[in-house]
Amino acid sequence: MTQPLMAVLLPGTGSDAMFVRSVFAGPLAAVGVTLRAPDPRPGKDLVRGHLEALDATTGPVLVGGISLGAHLAALWAARNPERCAGLLLALPAWTGEPGDAPAAVAARYSAADVRARGTETALAAAVAGVDPWLAAELSRAWPAHGAGLADSLLVAADQPAPTVADLASLDVPAGVACCTDDPIHPSEIARTWVDALPRAHLGTTTLAALGADRESLGRATVLAWLQARSTR
């Protein structure tokens, strides 16, 4: 009997596996793909923990994630091409070195605030004026990182994403998705990734849609992957 295809998807900076599941579990189940969403290992070993979770997979799998998770999955796939069956890449935030990318700048600022004023006060500032759904996600996920939150944010902010050359080496079906109104994860970055990947399609949604329905981002990513898989 053929084993069902598995997707191992990683969370973004300061986020968690619960958000990954809320975005992807339904859309993947609809196409017969099993989801595994590892929890982050907070602190300085955040990136190492994510990569070790991918290393622990057996057989060719779909890999990907959201923001930082998408970056790390693509880097892992470039180093392990024989183990990657495809890519599900939501909200890439930069290409190559982070530099002054908006997501990196935001993570560095938040890390400094957490260290200076503590998680509770920094969180109150971070959620002030943001959409209620995002405030709820941050309010759940940030405290779960415990004393490792600031280090988690800094490690993510300094972590290079795949380069154009890395992406060009990934000859597998890839679904890339962005929110067209998201200044932290600019749609131009997603388009750069799609242009670099040999077999990729772009899916789009909006932050407003994501706030109303987390699966809108998962559907956009999975649909783009299905389109990439059906073309060569």
TrEMBL record:
| Cited InterPro entries | AB_hydrolase_fold (IPR029058)
- The identity of this protein, by name, is Alpha/beta hydrolase family protein
